[in-house]
Amino acid sequence: MYLKSIELTGFKSFGKKTDIVFASRISSIVGPNGSGKSNVAEAFRFVLGEQSMKSLRSKRGEDLIWGGSPTLPRSNRAGVKVVFDNSLPAAQGTAQAGTRLLDLDFNEVAVERIVYRDGENEYLLNGTKVRLKDVIRLLAGANIGGSGYQIISQGEADRILNASPRERREMVEDALGLKLYQHKKAESERKLEETASNIDKTKSLRREITPHLNFLRSQVQKIEKAREMKEMLAAKLSEYLAREHAWITSEDKRLSAEERSQETELKTLGNRANEARGKRPSQSAGVLQELKGKIIEREQKLSEARRESEKLTRELGRAEGVAEANTVMVEQIVAVPHVRQFAREVSEAISEALRNDDMPSVRVLLLHIKDRIQSFVDGLSGSAPDTKEESQQQVKAIANSLERVQKEETALAQELEALRAQITQVRDAGFAAERDLIELESAVREAQGKLGSVQNARMTIATLRQAFEDEVREGIALVGAAIHDWEKPLRQPADGGAGDEVLTGDDRPAQEKRRREIERLKIKIEESGIGNGDAVVREFNQTRERDEFLGRELVDLERSAASLKDIIVELEKTIDAKFTEGLKLINATLGDFFMKLFGGGAAKLEVEEPRLRRGSGGQSPKSDEDLMDEEEEMTEEEELYAGLSISVHLPRKKVHGLEVLSGGERALTSIALIFSMSQVNPPPFLVLDETDAALDEANSKRYADMIRELGSKSQLIVITHNRSTMAAAGELYGVTMGNDGVSKMLSVKLEEAEKVAK
Ligand code: ATP
To answer: In the sheet that 26-30 helps form, which strands lie side by side, from edge to edge?
Structure first.
């Protein structure tokens, strides 16, 4: 007994608040036509969330509200509240131990719906406002609501017969409690769709990223290559610079030493040249002049001395002549051999002088001869013996003077000779100095040339040092501070590994080769066109991380898509299995009920051939549901669907099929079907509004039996005019309507009920 009570306030003909408390498993509502019985059935529909106005026999929400009568003004709202017993089954003593009817932690659950004149609806669970879908979901969990077979409206008993195979299948699925699985499946399908769209989105995001990522990857590869080249450059540059520095330093040292020595050499040569310059002939002109002056002076003195000597010689000759003449007599005889001797001697002397071209001697000899001749002549004329003494003294004096002069003459001649030798010597010295100077000057030029080239070499070195410093600066710009490494490894292990090699730059061609390699590397690095590339590397890493994240996301999404597919497949299997099994049970019960009702024959539900169907067209019993929940909307896509058909074989009749059934037969068949459906998965309660209206007395009795059977599984609210049915109920409610048009409820006894119903 789940259904405790229903309360109608301002709902349709129930202008006043009316509470119906259900105390029996089978309750019957009786009353005259138009008293408001069907309104009670509709109150159930309404409170369980019915959205179809047609199903509520109305056009608008307003039609559901008490419209007013002369004695009772109209209501502003219509409300229906149904109260369920939701205590734990243990307390109820049923088999479903541990599970409440409704999934709410309350022992009693009141579901309430109110409609206002403006058509606004309100739903409440235990007085708290909720959404329609919360109500629907809660009730679906308890197998309440759904396709509506649970509340069979007046004249709609054969609705399940009129329904299309597809609709029929849905009703059966609902009855079998598959709606929950359908919901789950729909939800999984929706999630799958969402996942698929996320997969698409993720894939397209990755596709968008890919070209950029590829571009960045190639950039990063270039950067890495450039970095490798830079490292190589740093190593090469470092070695090159170390060698260059060593070379420049040693070369500078060597050259500056050489420069100093060349300067000293040049100075020495310069001094020597200056000295030589001072000894040149042009420089000794004064000395020569002086010497020449002296020569002239001496020559004058010499010629004076010669003149004097000649004069004295003449005088001596004369004096001797005189003296001789004084002694001529004595000597004349002996004189002749003397004269011969003299003539011979003089002649020889003259010849000798002439041979020697010694004119002064010739002259002296001639003068001597003349004096002899004179004295001879004078001797011939004779002189006195006293004068002979005197003349001899005179001769002596003259001879002395002459000797003196002749000495002077000799000294002068010697002096002249010495002076002339001196001139020659000065001249020779000048020439030698000139020669030396020429040599020295050439040596100076050579030394200057050497110094110049040393200085040039030093300038070259200075240029190299400048270039070296530029290289260091450029190197810092290119490879950073690492370039300073060149300062450290002046000693590095040689390639052979055999000890250390002192890095020098002596091998200039090798250095030049290194420099060219470095230049080539620099150009390559420059051509790579990449700065330090940090930003690109960062962006690449970020983009790659994003791509990897998307990749993982994709894997996750695909995994969850796969698991959703699995879930769907599982659900389909479950639905399929439960459907097949449930259908079997329904068919078994259906056959049973059918035989009971018809006294034979057979009826069963059959799964049709699957066919393509589009959306949920036609007069669907679910069209109302489309409105109620956006999440559970039916798709409009085509799908393969196998509906349910009913095959009916009436006893003792050849023809079969639904089309040939009479109104009563149809009613019986549908009752058998509805009842068998509710037996497989019994709903907590069923409302049957004059479902037995078309039955004759015999069938009414069978119907009443079935009601009793049904009542053991589901709580029943049976609206009827039928006595047998009333008799099956444990409790009877009479509905009356007075002149005020207000439906009233009262508990009645069976005998009263029969009266009330009439
Ligand atoms: P029957 O036995 O003939 O099927 P019933 O007992 O089922 O009759 P209902 O159809 O439930 O009768 O009641 C119909 C009555 O309810 C009508 O008299 C109608 O005027 C009244 N009714 C319907 N809607 C309203 C409303 N909004 N306000 C007042 N009365 C209403």
So the answer is: 151-152, 685-689, 715-719, 26-30, 731-737, 743-748
Pick the atom of ligand 1 nearest to 40's CA: 11
pLDDT digits (tens, 9 = 90+) for 492-517: 444 544 445 567 777 889 889 998 99
Q: Are strands 644-649 and 685-689 parallel, antiparallel or unpaired?
A: unpaired
Pocket of ligand 1, candidates 16, 38, 60, 80: which has the most ligand atoms within 8 Å of its Cβ, to mutate?
38
Residue closest by Cα to atom 4 of ligand 1 = 33
Q: What is the DSSP letter of 48?
A: T
Distance CA 352, CA 343 (A): 14
In three-state secondary structure terms, 621 is: coil
CATH superfamily of 1-150+685-758: P-loop containing nucleotide triphosphate hydrolases (3.40.50.300)
Instruction: Using the predicted structure, report yes or no on whether residue 146 has a pLDDT greater than 70.
Output: no
Cα 688 to ligand 1 centre (Å): 17
User: Tokens at residue 358, please?
Assistant: 């010694």
Q: Is the pLDDT of residue 683 over 80?
A: yes
Identify the CA nearest to 56 among candidates 48, 66, 64: 64
Is the CB of residue 720 below 6 angstroms from any atom belonging to ligand 1? no
Report which ligand 1 atom has the smallest distance to the Cα of 689.
7
Ligand 1 atom 3: residue of nearest CA = 33
Ligand 1 centroid from CA 59, angstroms: 15
pLDDT, the chain, mean: 84
pTM, to two decimals: 0.55
CA 36–ligand 1 middle distance (angstroms): 4
* Helix/strand number for the chain, H first, E second: 17, 18
Within a 13 Å sphere around the CA of 165, how many CA atoms are in the beta-carbon half?
16
Using CA of residue 349, residue 353, residue 354, residue 356, what is the dihedral sign?
A: positive
Q: How far apart are the C-alpha atoms of 694 and 668, rounded to whole Å?
A: 9
**Ligand 1 neighbour 24 (Cβ under 6 A):** no
Residue spans per domain, the chain = 1-150+685-758, 223-279+454-502, 285-448
Give the lowest-confidence range in 153-162, 427-436, 515-524, 636-645.
636-645
Q: What is the DSSP secondary-structure string of 321-353?
A: HHHHHHTHHHHHHHHHHHHHHHHHHHHHHHHHH
Output the pLDDT for position 634. Answer: 44
Q: Dihedral through CA 100, CA 101, CA 107, CA 112, nearest 10?
A: 150
The angle subtended at Cα 455 by Cα 454 and Cα 459, nearest 5°, is 120
CB of residue 58 inside a 6 A radius of ligand 1: no
How large is the greatest C-alpha to C-alpha distance in the chain, in angstroms?
250
Pairwise CA distance, residues 340 & 207, whole Å: 157
- 7 Cβ contact partners less than 8 Å away, ≥ 6 residues apart: 17, 18, 19, 20, 79, 80, 81, 82, 83
Measured in degrees and rounded to the nearest 5, phi and psi for residue 707 equal -60, -45
Nearest atom of ligand 1 to the alpha carbon of 690: 4
Q: β-pairing, 685-689 with 151-152?
A: parallel
Q: How many angstroms does the Cα of residue 78 sit away from the middle of ligand 1? A: 15
Average pLDDT over every residue of 714-726: 93
The CA R_g of the chain, rounded to the nearest whole Å, is 80
